[in-house]
User: What shape does this take?
Amino acid sequence: MRKRRKTTSYHPLKRSIKSGLAPGTPVFVGERKQDDVQISIMTYSHDGVEELRSATLEDCRKSVASDSIRWININGLHDVKTIETLTRQFSLHPLTLEDIVNSGQRPKAEEFHHYIFLVLKMLSYDDARKTFSIENISLILGENYVISFQEKKGDLFDPIRDRIRTGKGRLRSSGADFLAYSLMDAVLDGYFIAIEKLGDHIEEVDEAILAGNDTGQMAVIHRMKRELLYLRKSVWPLREEISQLEKSSSPLISAATKTFLRDLYDHNIQVIDMVETYRDILGGMHDTYLSSISHRMNEVMKVLTIIATIFIPLTFVAGVYGMNFQYMPELEWRYGYFVVMGIMAVIGGGLLVYFRKRKWI
Amino acid sequence: MRKRRKTTSYHPLKRSIKSGLAPGTPVFVGERKQDDVQISIMTYSHDGVEELRSATLEDCRKSVASDSIRWININGLHDVKTIETLTRQFSLHPLTLEDIVNSGQRPKAEEFHHYIFLVLKMLSYDDARKTFSIENISLILGENYVISFQEKKGDLFDPIRDRIRTGKGRLRSSGADFLAYSLMDAVLDGYFIAIEKLGDHIEEVDEAILAGNDTGQMAVIHRMKRELLYLRKSVWPLREEISQLEKSSSPLISAATKTFLRDLYDHNIQVIDMVETYRDILGGMHDTYLSSISHRMNEVMKVLTIIATIFIPLTFVAGVYGMNFQYMPELEWRYGYFVVMGIMAVIGGGLLVYFRKRKWI
Amino acid sequence: MRKRRKTTSYHPLKRSIKSGLAPGTPVFVGERKQDDVQISIMTYSHDGVEELRSATLEDCRKSVASDSIRWININGLHDVKTIETLTRQFSLHPLTLEDIVNSGQRPKAEEFHHYIFLVLKMLSYDDARKTFSIENISLILGENYVISFQEKKGDLFDPIRDRIRTGKGRLRSSGADFLAYSLMDAVLDGYFIAIEKLGDHIEEVDEAILAGNDTGQMAVIHRMKRELLYLRKSVWPLREEISQLEKSSSPLISAATKTFLRDLYDHNIQVIDMVETYRDILGGMHDTYLSSISHRMNEVMKVLTIIATIFIPLTFVAGVYGMNFQYMPELEWRYGYFVVMGIMAVIGGGLLVYFRKRKWI
Amino acid sequence: MRKRRKTTSYHPLKRSIKSGLAPGTPVFVGERKQDDVQISIMTYSHDGVEELRSATLEDCRKSVASDSIRWININGLHDVKTIETLTRQFSLHPLTLEDIVNSGQRPKAEEFHHYIFLVLKMLSYDDARKTFSIENISLILGENYVISFQEKKGDLFDPIRDRIRTGKGRLRSSGADFLAYSLMDAVLDGYFIAIEKLGDHIEEVDEAILAGNDTGQMAVIHRMKRELLYLRKSVWPLREEISQLEKSSSPLISAATKTFLRDLYDHNIQVIDMVETYRDILGGMHDTYLSSISHRMNEVMKVLTIIATIFIPLTFVAGVYGMNFQYMPELEWRYGYFVVMGIMAVIGGGLLVYFRKRKWI
Amino acid sequence: MRKRRKTTSYHPLKRSIKSGLAPGTPVFVGERKQDDVQISIMTYSHDGVEELRSATLEDCRKSVASDSIRWININGLHDVKTIETLTRQFSLHPLTLEDIVNSGQRPKAEEFHHYIFLVLKMLSYDDARKTFSIENISLILGENYVISFQEKKGDLFDPIRDRIRTGKGRLRSSGADFLAYSLMDAVLDGYFIAIEKLGDHIEEVDEAILAGNDTGQMAVIHRMKRELLYLRKSVWPLREEISQLEKSSSPLISAATKTFLRDLYDHNIQVIDMVETYRDILGGMHDTYLSSISHRMNEVMKVLTIIATIFIPLTFVAGVYGMNFQYMPELEWRYGYFVVMGIMAVIGGGLLVYFRKRKWI
Assistant: This one.
């Protein structure tokens, strides 16, 4: 239980360790998700691509001079020293550095003089544990370069690397802003997949409930509700973030890319719609579940009570003729026993008919 | 169950298949609702009408040169190649093409340099299955032309074709913007019909509940609530879309048409009002249903418990005189039996009177 | 049941019959509330009043030339032809005509070049059937004239006619805009009366519930909630409508009248406040009702269960001494019977004392 | 019951009597709270104070000429004639007059050419009847004068009179705007006291509920919720009112006073915070109450059912050996009775142990 | 109970004692949390630091002349005289003084001509009593100086003092605005710690509920909900406060510091997110708790009812053969007793099988 929650953590990620430090002091906040920091550099222009799969800080420093578009990707954030050096090479603000290594950030866009800082949440749905895992992605969009920071190595950006290598699409012929957009688009595409999986899970649970197989479904519904809570925290601020970029007057973002950002905004609204729809659907499932539970319980209680009610008057009659009075005329009748048994059958049958007539059974 | 949901799908329509593709790559997302793509072209001016019922892409290309108003209608979206060619003829943005073939779009208006792109949802209520079916409609409003994309052939736009042919109303004497407005108006008129039918269904269920015939009504109420959820997703964004057109500074929309758009906006607000009212009414029905169920249950339990309660003390009395003590004076009394029977009648009657007095029965 | 709902209809008023017609085609949508169309004209200035109680279209046409303020009132909207002719005389937009004869309109203000079109809802509370009846009122405010359209003859505007005739107040000395304001004020005054009556009804129900007389009150509360739903739809849009007039830059509305419109706006806010307060109060009554029902039920069940619980152990004791074992020493004791009876009295009394101590009875 | 509600009336205060009257016709709407109208005038400047405790209309008229700051206070609003004369002396708008004598007004600020009209609600909590009583206060802020209208004589403004008399604070050296502010501040101070008392009452009820003494607490909670409903209607519009004054460009309000108005605004926000917090707390109390009631009920039912359940099998065993079969071997055993009694003890004890183990008792 | 509430008081802090006083009259409102007022002064510039740990008012007066940055910290607010003198030395507005000594203030920023007044709430979570304690912090940011007012001595600002002393970070080289920002940042860091602790507590309760150990958890959940209510009142207004500073045009705040304020704003949004998430989680826990309680209760009732239901028909059969009719053939059968016992076993077993089949047990 505890373990799971750590992942999609609403927990402040032990930010408390930072308390008292000067603002702008970079401290890694989060889980160490891989061992070493990996740096890769892609330098491309319309004419060609150059790729450095395990680059050093020195390579980064050199690349600053280049005229082509550069994409520097960093996997692993726990080695604060390395990241600090890197950010200094690109003269990033200390607060940006602090935010990059703090995986508890919420999605936002911050414009600085010579770069734009973007925070995104990468989402994946763990089919086995039925939970989302959320990873922090930071992007730096500067003139002619994009730096992306991931908590751990993932394959989310592979299709983009492929597109750069093959030169398909408009990536190679567009600027760094289009690369940044493409990365954001890849992240958002991941949301669709994750929510689709959650949706399948919700449908399974829905069908299980309708089929009356409802042991423990309440807990599942509640857990999924909580998952959606975390999800909302990732997608709602993203809306504002994209809208801010779209309206930005920064020269770093071209008009052509803004058309694509508008499309991205629409996709994000679609994701929000889906999240909100699932929330409503889960709410409805919760109600259906509760009312089906209580309906079943009522049925049980009703049938049992009816059985008791029929036999209690009969038992009374039997009790009457079990009394030991010396003078009880019926006892001496030849067919008294059978008459009484008949009366009891009539009473029982009458009650049954009455209950049926009132539609209680 | 599964089938139904596919239609009014909150499902992301397997957008996941698109993940990793370059933005602007057109991929058909949706259900293939008809076999072949049908293109029809109407060219009209104040003076006359020319109609091509099964046109080819070549016909479309030729029509570009025309001075009259052209309305190109496409039924069937799965043949991406054809649609791509068509959009290239009218130099539409790749993102527009991508949106046209993706039936999961939400209603929106997007202004490009030389055209306006509109997405609408066509609504029809399936009386038999008691569900809405929602179809995507895309409109391209350019200078002197309108292109409409439907997922499958429908009769929604037939009255407009008739009006163009006969020259009644102001259609023939107005521009392409009025045609686009007329198409939107036709779609919105369809909402009124669909919601009217849903309303009839809601009234039927309401009356069934009040008549006490409530088996399974809970599930029906929940399903209708879900239907309204999807419906809201179609009509709320439409509001923004129409308002955007009304306030647009694009030369493609004339002031005269804007007056009509304002009217359309009002109709849409009316639709929204109806949807929200039905939501509230369904909420109220849900409450009434629950309280009527629990009221009935209470009545049953009460009556049964009262029967049991009356007989339990009587059975006790009978039990007392069924004891086998050697010395029990009452047993030897001549009329002991009748006295005890009388006492029991008094107890039973007294309890009945007491219960009635306290209004329990 | 069906009948009632027709009146305060959330039903789209069979707008479906309009589907497919050209926008601006006038079709009467609503119930035919009176047989013939009645037209009356009041022409007045500071100096005098002229009144035509059953005017013809010809009279209307002539009045256009007049310099005095003219108030043309039309009762009955089903004769579309007549109303169409009239609106053409005053060169009204076809959409205005369409809206006038459609009683399903929501309150709104629309400014055209030479006139302002206003839609209002007249409200009256039917004491006998405990429902609101809502009637559509349309006003045309032009230069020097006001045209008012009512679904049927009513006495709402009589005080205003009296004030014009007698010359009291500022009506005779003000322009057409003040007349339009006065008509709106009269409609709003009607709201206060209607809500007052609803309030009395709510109080009656509240007292009945507190007095424990609650059969069927649930249905009444739900019906009143629904009534308030319709009411809200009349008063909320009115707020925007008045505010729009107040801020209008149209020369048709003078600054002096705007002060009065601000007052009207305040009255409308008061009406909204009352409606929302009643909604909250009804919500509270609903809760009280439910909890009083369940409380009563609990009381019943508790008392009955306690009776049963006391007698069940006693019956057991009696059953023990009703066993037929050959050797049961107690049975042969001289006072065995009385001892056992005493023990049973102690058990019963003890349970009673215990229950009372735990405050169960 | 009826009586109480009249006081904090959500009732439209029989505004219906006004229906049909010309706008601006002053009609007293409210309860006549005192017999005669009392007018008092304070004329003060930096140098001195002059006080007229029972002034006449003539005194008011004369005071108009004065150069000092004048504060005219009127207690009692039912004598419409007197108030009409007074307002005419200061050339107030007829709508202002109408609003002054209508105690159903909601808080608002209205700027006219030469004065500002303010409506406030004075609040006091009646400790005995546990209800708020709400009184209407109207203020006219003109150049060098303030006129205040109260429904009945109260001591709310006495501290301000004292401060004027003694010359303490900045009142004597400031303008009429500071006097108006001081009066508003006094009204708001009254809110703190009233809500403090309500808070004490809420705490008492909360403790009574936690102590299990909950007879009738439901009704109390509901009544307090209703009281807060009325309260909200007084404080929320006040927020807008003060904010409007603060941002007003009227020369009647000086920059120095605006600093104080900002402070007043903060106080009002604090009052709103408190009201909303109490609403949330009452909502929580409602839930706690319901769940404690149902918990107690459950406990009762459980214990009673357990008693019944233990004795029912035992009674069955006793019943078996009460059967009259001729051949029942156990009956003839020497210690049959004791064996059976032992078996019954084992069954009863066993059930008790089982129940305890499952934590049912 | 009463004690606890005093601390996180929603109580208006007996503001009533202020009623009737002139606005701007400083009255200490709150709890006296320490005995004497302590003043400390830090004077620093890029070159060095001077520290006065127990300063006098005289020291403060002298420091006014200094050119370096001065930070005056005051612990203890009950000695209104001292604080009044101090504020007069810095020519603060009387309303500022009044707000400083009133611990019931809500967070706000107020700009005056020569200084900015800030109110913050310091938060700490008392692990033992599981409640937040909230303390009022006031900051005065003037040209080259910051004055901070705390209700009692705390160690929250110690890290900042250390940073000034050691000259680490940019504090020594920045202006007074950066100092004010650093103090606010320290307060906000405290929020993370406090909410982290609350989160741990919520998780403990959640796990206890899931483990079925739920005695009294309802009260705990309600108390935590209330705590979050108070918390929200501290963090929501802070958002507006920081945003106001960030957008301020005051020369007292430099552009460089504004970048840091934007970061602070983000942190505050994160805190708000956490608070809202915890609210939702507590709401969900409440639901889970209720449904687990009712589920358990249902289980108990069902099992008990089933036991009763099985034995009631059996007891009836036993009762039948306990009747004393002279002619009851079964009684004379040789194996009548065993046959009946067998029949009873069959009935009981049959019911058990039936119940199991319907999944009732």
